Each structure stands twice: as C-alpha cells, then as structure tokens.
Amino acid sequence: MVLFVSFLIVLAMLSNKISSKVGLPLLIGFIGIGIIVGSDVLNLFYFDNASLTKRIADVLLIFIIFDGGFRVSKEAFRSVAGPSLTLATFGVALTAAVMGILIHWILKFDLIYSFLLASIISSTDAAALFMITKASPIKNRLATTLNVESAANDPMAILLTITFIQAATKAFDSPVKAVLLLLWQFFGGIGIGFLSYKLSVLLFNRLNSDNRGNYNVLLLGCILFGYGAAEQFNANGIISVFFMGYWMGNHNYPAKRSVSSFLESVATISNITLFIMLGLLSFPHRFALIWKEAFLIVGLLMFVARPIAVYISTIPFKYSFKEKLFVMWGGVKGAVPIVLATYPMASGLDADGFIFDTIFFAVFLSCLIQGTTLGPLSKLLRLTDRIKPASTHIVELHSTRNCDVDMFEVLVEENTVFQDMPLSKMDLGKEILISSIVRDGKIIMPKGDTSIEANDILYVLAKSSQIELVNEKINRKKT
After folding, report:
1. Residue 127 has what pLDDT?
2. I need a labelling partner for 81 at 20 to 30 A (CA). Which of 190, 300, 441, 448 fits?
C-alpha cells in the first residue's frame, strides 16, 4: 500500500507538469489517475464507498477553501468585490434556479430533484481557474473577477445543495424556518469566521516560539477550530473558513510567510487526495447510461444558465459585451460539484448513482471544453495583457516575531525613470533596501554601480506600509 501511494503521488506531480504545459486543468489529470488505477480500468484499487468519500472530502475541503480565501488579496478583492461577490452569491443562485427549471422542464425530473442537480453543479472551480489565469495573459480585472468569484462561490453552492437535500428528505418544518436557517448559515458562518480569525491572530502573537513548525501546527488547529465552531452553532463551516482565510491572508502576524508556504503544501496534498479519490469512486462504464443527460446539462449550463446569470449579475457594473462574454465562458466546473454529488448518495437520495455519474461526467466535459479554450478565447477577444516575467527564485524574510518589515517583489516595467540608472543614484529612502535582483532567471547581488534594467525583478526589504509607494517610485514613467 505504501508503494502504491508513493506511485500515485509521483504520478500526480508529473501530471501536474503535463497539465500546465498543455493547458489542461489539474482536475483532469488527477481524476484521470484515479480512474486508471480504479475498478473499471486497471483494478488496482477497488473503491465505492460514497459515505466515506463524503466524510474525507469534507475535511479536505476545509483546507482547500481556507487556502482559497487566504490567497485573495485585499486589493484584488476590493477592485472586483462588487461583481465577484454578486456572481458568487446571486449568480450561483440564479444559475441553479435557471438550471433547475430547465432540467425539470426538459428531462421531466421531480422539481426538488431538478433543483438539487442544478445546485450541485452551480459553482465554478478555483483550482482550475487559478491555473488558467496564471498561465494565460488575461487582463488583470477579468482574471481577478473570475478568481475571486471561483474562490468565493463554493459556499453558496454547498448551502443550496444542503438546503434541497433537507427539502427532499423533509428535514424542514416550514419554508420560513428553512429561509432563516439558510440566512444564519451564511451570515453566522461569516461572523464565526471573523471571530476565529481574531482569536487565531491573538494566538499567533502570543505563541512566541523559535520553532517555525509550531506555527504550522497552530495554523491547522485554528482552521479546524473555525470550521468546528461554525458547525457546532449550526452555521456553515465552509463559509466560516473561507472568510477566516481571507482575513488571515491579509493580516500580519508572526511566521506568516512560513505558514503560507506550509498551507500551500497542505492545500496541494488535499487537492491531489480529493481528485484521485473521486476518480477512484467513478465507474466510467456507467457513463454510457447517462451521457445524454450529462451533455444536455453541460450545454444548458454553458449556453443558457451561466450566460443569463452573468448578464444579469453584471448589469450594475461596467463590463463591455466582450468582457461579459468571456466571464460567461469562465464557468469552469471542478472538484466541489463532484464532492457535492456524493451528498445525495450518502443521504439515500441517489441509490443508483445517477446524480454522481451525471455530475462527474458533466464536470469532466466542462473542464475539457471550457478549461482548454478559455485562454485562447481571451486572445481571440483581445482581452489579454503582456505576460510579466516571473522569478525562478524566491527571496523571503522568515520571522517568528511580529514585525512591520517584509521582503517584497517588484517588477521593473518598461520606460521607467530608474531604468539604466545605477543603484547608487536611486533615491528610494534610507529605510529601503534592494537585497537582490533577478535578471534573465539569474540572481544578481546588487552593488552601487549595478544598473536597473527593464523586466528586472527586485527583492525589496521595506516596511509593509511603504511598499506601494516604493512600487510607484520604481515604476514611475519617464516624461
């Protein structure tokens, strides 16, 4: 078993590299591994326990969703907060509503059953979209809109799915109680997430340890506390950890850089485990029984429900028709819908596996079609920016004490005042230090006569409050 697991991990990392090169979402590669080693192909590992999958996936999603919130910067959030949060809440609900009506009307399914199917597949995938927008030179406003939406819309899809499962199982006493519980789960989750963030920062400031590993362990405990506290008070734990992650990602505390790297590793492991496990749970031979419904659902989602939801949700905001068209096509599906598809099975509402198989195949089609064409579509619609060079080196300031100084990465743009100027003549202030320069993939140790060139990546040691001013100074254009 240990050898088998090691094989899966290495194979997953290799598929990660291949996916990045050919532009396929990571979901396809990881799930593909699960399918290949699973019951229907090589039969190396038989797995068909949907209830166990749900329990494990719920734990893995805690760290995946927290990391999604942690990576959303305050600046990015503020720049697109209106449209992104509208799409992540009202847009998801509208997508589910339109899809539910269409499924009920065309496929003649029970109304609650139709809305359950639609709710499960209503959210977009953060992991897939982050990879696509990072690899493609999409305009920053559009890329950020899709990234924030995808990171924030999973909680709404989870809430809707749970709501319709409870409606189908007669768990609600009245519609009024259902609405009140839904509101409490959402706003209660946000409130508990905020309190958990405040408590976590207090604990990080009080730990005062020289061992960075202690802070990593503390982070795990804080994340689980945020989720568990919300669930204890009948609020939504996923919403709690998402907003907790957002606030912690935008706050300074001891060992933040260290726990950020650790969290990235935890999220990566969680994603790999989740995707492979979902691949193992699938039985491709059953796709022959549901492929028509899956194609219909994907078609309705791509060309009817998502476009309607995006068009209506973005009416108050200034987006051109081309930009709206691009956001409409950016509804790439991913892991969360497949995880949610295990909920009905675990609740006894999907005994024959129809919902899981249909959602699984629909998500796979969405990743394959939308995931591979979103980058080229941005070029076709001329919604791209110049690709900025990325550093192949990382220079960080690791501190286990709370301080207002950090290491920042600044890209030198074309035609700036400091271009071709030696460091000795640059006036950035006495408290600003350029510690190293990355040029053409190589690290240069800065000296007084070292000249700054366009596309240099500078690692600047400065106070956190000064970095925006430093960036503006370095990239001030020549008159």
Report:
1. 67
2. 300
